[in-house]
Amino acid sequence: MGAHSRSSQDKQTSKSKHHSQTISFEDNRLLASLLGEFDSNLAIIEERLNVEAVVHGNIITLEGSADQCDMAKEVLDHLYGRIAKGDDLTPGDIDGAIRHAQSADGLKQPATAKSKNGKDSQKSKDNGQAQIRTRKKHITARTPRQSTYIRAIEQSDLVFGIGPAGTGKTYIAVAAAASALERGAVERIILSRPAVEAGERLGFLPGDMRDKVDPYLRPLYDALYDCLPAERVEKEIEAGTIEIAPLAFMRGRTLASSFVILDEAQNCTSMQMKMFLTRLGENSKMVVTGDPSQVDLPPGQKSGLSEAVKLLSGVDEIEKIIFQGEDVVRRALVAKIVAAYDKYADGD
């Protein structure tokens, strides 16, 4: 009886591993974009989801376990829908769709949320993979936690984005600011970083004060130029609509009708963080990003970021998104580097 039962289970398991499923697509031109050159996009899906895919005309046949085939179908349908809307696909987009499909919520439509003005949140209406749209570029979340981060920025006035390098904390915040400026939701963007010396002395660097601090602010410039046309960025910086400045320049100001970002916040002192957070004015949003594992403050000096997150944890209007090593999207090697350092820090 036991042997017969095991035999039946083996057959059932074997059957589940050889599930077959077909998907048909109406537009062969869109399907070609979905598959990628030499079916490269499809190859990524096959490898990551452990399925086999065969294309016959406008039909894709999937073979593998039932769960993996369902997941692959969800990814293909989602990406086809994005192409139909005019989006271009990159390997990163394929990776992002797969990561979302593998999460508990998948790529399904989430419940529509309300923003603070009572209107439906556009980003919440999107599929499980949230997006930020500017005229130059559409930025799509590549991990479920990035989607949560995008929606938090949409719906809250103050958001902390905390975690390791390569998780998109700063880039997404700048993209959200660029989108808000284009839509007229804010009147200006203010991007700031503490100019903390990490192994080099500012006084020894050549040039005037702007020349000395610009290297600290370069990642913010790069993100802006990626989301907005270069001439628009230059024009808005010249007009003061976009301001990029060291943290010290924020003292004594009230930042109203602004999208304010503080990057590398782990290098703020407690007093600097309090000063910055209390600059928040009417009709403004503030995003604070940082990596508590990369503090460049002098030994013994407490990071204002860690303290602020702890002190403000009970304030309902403030969102805190904690990114993990699994959210690293820069490239697979960076994720492995982060994991190795985390393991070392844990004493393993």
Characterise this structure.
The protein is built from 13 helices and eleven strands. By secondary structure, the chain is α/β, with parallel strands linked by helices. Helix 4 packs across helix 5 and helix 7 packs across helix 8 (169-183). Mean pLDDT is 82; it is low at 1-15, 110-126 and 197-202.
Low-confidence stretches: 1-15, 110-126, 197-202
- How many strand units? 11
Classify the beta-strand content into a percent band: 15-25%
Structural class computed from helices and strand pairing:
alpha/beta
Rg, Å, rounded: 23 Å
Query: What integer is the average pLDDT?
Result: 82
Largest sheet: 6 strands, parallel
List the helices and strands and how they pair.
Blueprint: H1 2-17, E1 19-24, H2 28-35, H3 40-49, E2 52-56, E3 59-64, H4 66-84, H5 91-102, H6 122-125, E4 131-133, E5 138-140, H7 144-155, E6 158-162, H8 169-183, E7 188-193, H9 209-227, H10 230-239, E8 242-246, E9 258-262, H11 270-277, E10 285-290, H12 304-311, E11 318-322, H13 332-345
Parallel strand pairs: 6-10, 6-11, 7-8, 7-9, 9-10
Antiparallel strand pairs: 1-3, 2-3, 4-5
Helix pairs in contact: 2-4, 3-5, 4-5, 7-8, 8-9, 11-12
Keywords:
single chain; alpha/beta; 3-stranded antiparallel beta sheet; disordered N terminus; 11 strands; 6-stranded parallel beta sheet; 13 helices
A few lines on this structure:
With 348 residues, the protein is of the alpha/beta class.
